[in-house]
Amino acid sequence: MVKTLPKTDVVIVGVGWAGGIIASELTKQGLNVVGLEKGRERETEDYYMVHDELRYALRYELMQDLSKDTLTFRGNEKIRALPMRQYGSFLLGDGLGGAGVHWNGQTFRFLPYDFEIRSKTIERYGKNKIPADMTLQDWGITYDELEPYYDKFEKMAGISGEENPLGGKRSDKYPTPPMKHSPQMRMFKKATEKLKYHPYTVPSANLSEPYENPDGISRAACQYCAFCERFGCEYGAKADPVVTVIPVAKQTGKFDLRTHSWVRRILHKDGKATGVRYTDVTTGEEIEQPADTVVVTSYVFNNVKLLLNSKIGKPYDPSTGKGVVGKNYAYQVVKGSAVGYFEDEKFNNFAGAGALGMVIDDFNGDNFDHSDVDFLHGGYLALTQTGQRPIQNNPIPKESPTWGKEFKQNSLKYINKTLSVSAMGASLPFKQHYLDLDPVYKDTFGDPVIRMTYDFKDQDRHLAQFTAKKAEGILKEMGADKIDTMEELGPYNITTYQSTHNTGGVIMGDDPNTSAVNNYSQMWDMDNLFVVGASSFPHNSGYNPTDTVGALAYRAAEGVIKYQKSGGILA
């Protein structure tokens, strides 16, 4: 029997970065908010003994249990999709804070070009520059319109950084100074300046100094312990929802946080969301939570899965190009990199932080002329010192044997003599790349799981080869004696880790025929339903997505407040 609870003003599905920000902003305005999180609650104290590479980095302590909920994958529609049974290409966070707990902390703003990418591309190169099957579209919002929300997110999180010389204009400087520069970073800076590029310090959610944010939340500085990605931070130095926005929401007395609450359906009637139905996974009890407004703030795949299983929005059909839910799935092109080996240098590569590094944007967005290249957009090139933990890292030249005496000798020789220049390449959308419900496989409650159809295209291969050659040039200038450069980008491989930067599926825009939500993340065809997160990206940029997720969450919170007062589709 289903238990129905008293109605609340707002119910939030998923309490990570987007959910935490919206809960904080709405409760500060006096709204009663219920936050439903299917994982367990977490606190900073949970990470006091977190430096266990085997438990967290390789056995995925903080990640979703794939035996209970997963997704299926296929490279194209001619192949049968099979379930992801072990982690590889990306990592799905679980529990309070979501993926915002185990991220590295690299906090880049997207470029102005990103938000008007179709218009700007046609304006400079003509329509023929865009491949016929590339579903490129503007976002329905400009960089200048989103800039105040970027600023708000960065001040809340205490982002440490310096101005990007090739980025969009800022209304204010970063709230804290950039991170320390290691010898490796100084080598990269010197080399790229000599090549006439424009290096700057990676903007970091790992605090460079103690900081108190506008909400009165104080946090300590980073200790450069190098246990960031796949780990929670025992110092609270890395900004995550658990140490920033969620405490603010709790302090208002208006936030009812319920963990172990697996939301399975958005309830709706006559074109309006009426609440959600969820299962308490500790008791098996089915519960309905009525609400005036429903805000879906889970991870990309879960946002799409919940909408499709709830029969909300028109599912995307790749054969016709019609429909919007599941459209424009995009990933990230991170293979266009190079590794340099230095015979007479020795580096301390084990120290670091998740967002410690130097970066250039000379080949990102449309910062360079694309007339003579066979791809659009680009990516950043960076030397990051995130900390090479011993189990996961064993760099040796590619011609080396992978076992035996020489393998062991090279492993010892090069462990502290290797530097990488890595690309974070944009992933642009194609009509063949989408998310839908799998017709065969189901989760632990019997609901269809998400099916992902995706593979690298010529756009991605050409971009990766281009950035790899640029990375090689930087390493040569840095003095590397031997360089291994990516030569060819093969088919997409879901079994090998690349990044957790999945985007799209509930994309934003200014036309209900081509987008699912408006620029407040409000569903076009259900005005009291907001869907917030990287699922709203019409494409993925040449950056990490978190800063843009945070900015859009602050704008969505503003939209919910406006909707509570006036109703209707927001303009």
TrEMBL record:
Residues covered by the Glucose-methanol-choline oxidoreductase C-terminal domain: 435-553
The keyword Lyase appears for this protein: no
One function term, GO molecular function aspect: flavin adenine dinucleotide binding
Name of the protein: Gluconate 2-dehydrogenase flavoprotein
Cross-referenced SUPFAM superfamilies: FAD-linked reductases, C-terminal domain, FAD/NAD(P)-binding domain
Region (Disordered): 161-183
Source species, domain of life: Bacteria
Gene3D superfamilies, alphabetized: FAD/NAD(P)-binding domain (3.50.50.60)
UniProtKB keywords: FAD, Flavoprotein, Oxidoreductase
Family indicated by similarity: Belongs to the GMC oxidoreductase family.
Pfam families with a match to the protein in the record: GMC_oxred_C, GMC_oxred_N
Organism: Oceanobacillus picturae
Domain Glucose-methanol-choline oxidoreductase N-terminal: 143-330
